[in-house]
Hints:
The chain is of the alpha+beta class.
Amino acid sequence: MSEAGDGFLIRSLASTYPDGFTIAAHDHPWGQLAYGISGVMRVATEARVWLSPATRAVWLPPHRPHSLRMKGAVALRTIYVAPEIGGDLPVEAVVLAVRPLLRELILHALSLGMLGPGVPAQARLAQVLVDQIALAPREDLALPLPRDPRALALAEQIQAQVEARTSLPDLARAAGASLRTLQRVFPRETGLSLEDWRQKARMIHAAAALAAGATVTDAALGCGYESVSAFITAFRRQFGVTPGRYPPAA
């Protein structure tokens, strides 16, 4: 990605990736809006990991190293925003809801390829696009990652087998630490108790499954719940809406 000052305000890219495809850690001098119109993206920085399902996008500020891994076939539509017009955009990485207007603006920008200040219609379109990114509702689909190697190993195991009902003591032993030790580490390094961290991981996984078309029952079973009613209660507590109404209507 070129540095600012190359004469463009917006660049765009359309790519399709198979299930499991990984893009290694990298960064861009421009801000990046990564929008998957199918599948689920797992976006990771050093400190956090996000799951971004279809109808959602991840905003990544300039110079923020990140990696991506695809869950299912992902049709990725990317908008790069030059720093000189991105001053009102989030300074931290965040998942955004993509409402119909923003979706159509993204697709229109993709049809044009690049937007420059020398064409008044393109300059106006670039500004409207940036305004809509700034206004897009933010969603808490992020998991903070611990730095402690044992806690990080446990976090990765939970994410890899979110449907497993393995007890926390057994998971802790597999990670090479006692449960009590990890129960001290997680709040200190993530701001969440170990139990709350696992619960949030389950709910984020369920949200991605629901956005991809899973039934409420399948989403519940897929994140380790035997009781659908208990899952509905936990999901509503996390996202403020029942799983049957997720994703919320635009």
